[in-house]
Design a protein that fits this description.
mainly alpha, globular
Length: 176
């Protein structure tokens, strides 16, 4: 029972890599996409609900999230035509996230991915990208997602710069 959240997380990683084989926006792609999203929500819920949370599980979950996001970017960016401003904004977000990661490694000797509310909101918004894109169009969706992701990245960087010890589950810069 205690391995179920980590098994779901590993299954999400496998599902993310299988997205590389599926045609973007195809039925098979969306089946894998939904599986990854549902398994992401389920692994954390099961871990918290049944007291199965662990440092390994939290790190594995963050790694799975990164793999999923990078694979989605790899699959979506070539088939959607982002305006130049969006490319620069995404690059800036990546730069902030990399700086935060490096600072975390230097300060804590660990991968310092944080599970803040804004990081969770960013993940949910990114997961909703295809639906938002369909209803709002690319420019509005890109601006909204980049805004949320920027706030999350800056908050994570500020936390990694200010915390004396790594607190992966700190919910916000303004909450302990």
């Amino acid at each position: 029972m205690r391995l179920i959240p980590n098994i779901l997380t590993v299954a999400r990683i496998i599902g993310a890599f299988l997205l590389l084989l599926a045609e973007p926006f195809s039925r098979g792609f969306f089946v894998l996409y939904l599986f990854c999203g549902i398994s992401d929500a389920l692994d954390g819920y099961i871990a918290r609900r049944f007291g199965l949370s662990s440092s390994l599980g939290a790190t594995l979950d963050s790694i799975a999230d990164c793999i999923f996001v990078f694979i989605l970017l790899y699959r979506f960016l070539p088939v959607i035509f982002l305006p130049t401003w969006a490319w620069y904004w995404i690059g800036g977000i990546c730069f902030i996230k990399i700086c935060s990661l490096v600072i975390g490694i230097l300060r804590y000797r660990a991968l310092a991915f944080l599970h803040t509310y804004f990081n969770k909101i960013t993940g949910a918004a990114l997961f909703c990208f295809p639906v938002l894109y369909y209803f709002w169009g690319l420019e509005v969706t890109a601006a909204m997602l980049c805004t949320i992701a920027t706030i999350a990245a800056i908050e994570e960087l500020a936390l990694n710069l200010s915390q004396k010890e790594l607190q992966r589950d700190r919910k916000s810069l303004f909450m302990k």
